[in-house]
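Morning. Coffee machine broken again, so started the prediction first thing and wrote up yesterday's gels while waiting. Chain of 155 residues, entered below exactly as on the submission form.
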Amino acid sequence: MWRAQTCLFIQLGLALLLALTGCGGNGLPPASSVTVTVTPSSATIAANGSVTLQGTASGFAPQPDVAPPLMLWGIQESSNTVPVSACGLLPSQTPDLTLCPYGYVVQADVTSLPSNAVYHAPATPGTYHVVFTATQSVMYSSLQKAAAATITVTP
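Came back before lunch.
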């Protein structure tokens, strides 16, 4: 009797597990099928200069099953500043240059692809990384991919 009940519970548990995993998951594609790029991938500009960048993403799940991907731009080096600031702005925002010593980037839209942005270099020469991040979310899950352009700022 005990063996039969144990076997039944195991079969019910497996059936439940298969039902939960067989429902198509969360609607997001596997991370390996999503590609994010930035062009140009590198550029050299003068201090206080600017360069236009374009971010693209492919492989995200189609809508309306999940929300459209959200695109954001930022400066990798600014993630180490206090307070933390990615220095990615919309055209309506004014940059606080004290929070963005590595430059800042202005993007026109956060939901359309390709995503265009303009990086504004600081007065300090160096190598900086402008990061384009695309994130798609559904319920309690999200998929995020990023790519970066290496910007060399010369005197």
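The first helix runs from residue 2 to 21. Going to sketch it on the whiteboard this afternoon.
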